[in-house]
Amino acid sequence: MTTLQNILSGWKSYLVSDPVSEVKAKERAEICALCPEIKKGSFEQLMPDHSLKTIQGMKCGECECPLSTATRSKDYNCPLNKW
What we know:
Number of helices: 3
Shape: globular
Helix content: 25-40%
Order of helices and strands: HHEEH
Strand content: 5-15%
Oligomer: single chain
């Protein structure tokens, strides 16, 4: 899957909640919340995340992706190979 397809997949799962992707996203969010590369993004106002509060408004310091969408993308992999 291309990077663009991964991004679109994550946004789709963010906008239209899917129970399977939410379980996977919660597992990934727990890992991201403890990662030293996590950074405050400018996404909290634009993208409130009521189900993944630990990463709400945060982004990956490695790839700069908003974590609310990256953790929900079915085929996206952490750039640091943590998930």
